[in-house]
Backbone:
């Protein structure tokens, strides 16, 4: 992977309702950084050409709006898990890759994706949040942090509520450190239950312009 091989994304509107922006390019450090700063992320099946998306509306979470259910408060009170950050990034992305999903919704994390995000982690832009139980990785998530925005990529749970535990702890930590926006990309009921909501692509890009200054 050559970091200097940068594909510079034009500031264009999606070409279809799915939010597809571009096809091709590469997953170099520079390309990924440019994409995220413009609200674009890669999403494609292994073996396919790289596809880049910027959906409208965008599914996001404002950290101060995080919802913690009564059942999750019980999980915290019972101290079922412990929490860490950046302790097991490679293992988190591997678990996100292999976790069983609904029929027809296989993993989108290819060898190239795994390599690219491990590279982002080594450069300090990608991060993982982990939930542990009995010294075993029970759940977690990873994503990209630029400026005051965290772009969530994927999460997994090997134990019930482990991914929610990691996510809630991570959101609280981000908020304490001045992070103002979490990009959830596309809708899931799991994230909706935690307080995520839709905003327009136009509003999302305004927030990126305000919160990312590098």
Residues:
């Amino acid at each position: 992977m050559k970091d200097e091989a940068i594909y510079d994304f034009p500031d264009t509107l999606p070409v279809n309702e799915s939010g597809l922006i571009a096809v091709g390019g590469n997953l170099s450090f520079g390309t990924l950084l440019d994409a995220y700063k413009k609200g674009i992320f890669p999403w494609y099946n292994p073996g396919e050409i790289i596809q880049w998306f910027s959906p409208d509306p965008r599914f996001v979470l404002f950290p101060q709006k995080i919802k913690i259910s009564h059942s999750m408060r019980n999980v915290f009170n019972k101290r079922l898990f412990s929490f860490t950050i950046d302790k097991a990034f490679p293992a988190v992305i591997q678990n996100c890759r292999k976790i069983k999903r609904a029929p027809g919704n296989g993993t989108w994390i290819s060898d190239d994706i795994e390599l690219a995000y491990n590279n982002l982690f080594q450069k300090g832009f990608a991060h993982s949040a982990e939930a542990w139980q009995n010294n075993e990785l029970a759940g977690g998530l990873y994503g990209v942090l630029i400026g005051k925005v965290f772009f969530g990529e994927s999460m997994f749970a090997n134990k019930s509520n482990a991914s929610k535990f990691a996510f809630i702890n991570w959101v609280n930590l981000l908020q304490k450190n001045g992070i103002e926006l979490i990009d959830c990309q596309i809708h899931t009921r799991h994230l909706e239950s935690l307080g995520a909501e839709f905003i327009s692509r136009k509003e999302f890009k305004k927030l990126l312009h305000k919160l990312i200054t590098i």
